[in-house]
Specification:
The chain has 11 helices and 13 strands. It has 346 residues and is of the alpha/beta class. The strands form 3 sheets. It has a 6-stranded parallel sheet. A 5-stranded parallel sheet has the order 10-9-11-12-13, with helices on both faces. It is globular.
Length: 346
């Protein structure tokens, strides 16, 4: 296997996707598969890409069919784009000033456009629309180059199966694989940590925590914090937060929850519907008041926090590991790899 990184930039800038890369690397090594990370695909190997393709990527992959590829899918589909959760049902195609199903009314001023509710506030929604729509369009075109899709959540498997019907979609199971950082001594000196991009809804909740007296929250942005630094922050945190990308997001951040659990850290997870089986190993909340009460309670009550942490982390280990023997704890992963390699050989 080769994990291909060129469509995400240099290896040392892959902070945003490192959780997924390392997890795949670890479970393939557990299964005695040869796995390496390379900027470019390699012939004679199963090449794994994380979705994010531009026109250059299309030209490269569509020009040489000797590369055998799997695409890992991480983004949520929202109509004809990725990750734009709001206003979609209210705006029709004829309202678009530039053609296509944009989420902007013809008579809107720039100020009105920027006030629209959407996950990413750093750019006007029409710029985000073009970005995400282009990525989804490129993915649809390039998907014919892969022999399988790996979905990081069952909901993604269902959604992508509807639009990419000619390619098998396999779900990557989440199992406990102990993070090697746990071998060294540490102290949980950070009250609360959060890793992720600060969308509008996330920022609102984080600011509420920041206003709590005597409680500190440590933020790490994926593109600015290395994977090693992020893991160190999480493992030394009393609590780790998982917050929805946007108000209508349907799945939690499964990779970040999984990574925190493998670092034996208690996770507070904003409830989503339908969610993911991994969020059963977290403490869930629905309202800002519930979140603030949980933060205050668990930060101030070490004994209660440690009991909850051990109960949830141990349950995750027990449910997915089934003992210390590596052969016992990766049956779901064996099934994934057997199915993948059968498709590869067909």
């Amino acid at each position: 296997y080769t994990f291909v990184t060129y469509n995400h930039g240099p290896v040392d800038s892959l902070h945003e996707n490192w959780d997924n890369i390392i997890y795949v690397k670890r479970f393939l090594e557990h299964l005695d598969r040869d796995i390496r990370i390379s900027p470019f695909p390699e012939k004679g190997r199963i090449n794994i890409f994380i979705e994010r393709f531009n026109h250059h990527d299309l030209n490269l992959l569509m020009s040489d069919y000797e590369y055998k590829c799997i695409f890992m899918i991480t983004e949520q589909i929202t109509g004809d784009t990725f990750n734009l959760f709001d206003k979609k049902k209210d705006i029709k195609e004829e309202d678009s000033p530039m053609g296509g199903n944009m989420f902007v009314k013809k008579n809107m001023s720039p100020a009105e456009v920027n006030k629209m509710s959407h996950p990413h506030k750093d750019k006007p929604i029409h710029e985000k629309y073009h970005k995400w729509k282009s990525r989804l369009d490129n993915f649809k075109r390039i998907s014919k180059r892969c022999f399988a899709l790996w979905a990081l959540a069952p909901q993604l498997q269902k959604d992508y199966g509807k639009i990419i019907q000619h390619i098998p979609v396999l779900t990557v199971p989440r199992v406990y694989i102990r993070n090697e950082l746990l071998g060294s001594a540490f102290e949980r000196s950070i009250d609360v940590s959060f890793c992720g991009n600060l969308t509008a809804s996330r920022k609102e909740l984080i600011e509420k925590i920041q206003n709590l007296p005597n409680i500190k929250i440590k933020l790490s942005k994926p593109k600015e914090t290395s994977a090693e630094e992020r893991d160190e922050i999480i493992r030394t945190s009393k609590l780790h937060l998982d917050l929805k990308l946007g108000p209508k997001s349907q799945i939690p951040s499964t990779s970040r929850i999984h990574n925190a659990l493998c670092l034996d850290t208690l996770v507070l997870c904003e409830k989503v519907d339908p969610g993911h089986e991994i969020d059963t190993y977290t403490v869930k909340f629905e309202t800002p008041d519930e979140l603030l009460n949980l933060v205050k309670y668990y930060v101030q009550n070490n004994e209660a926090r440690e009991k909850q942490r051990k109960d949830l982390v141990e349950k995750f280990k027990e449910d997915t590991a089934q003992g210390k023997d590596a052969d016992c704890k990766i049956n779901p992963l064996k099934q994934l790899i057997m199915a993948t390699e059968q498709l590869y050989n067909n």
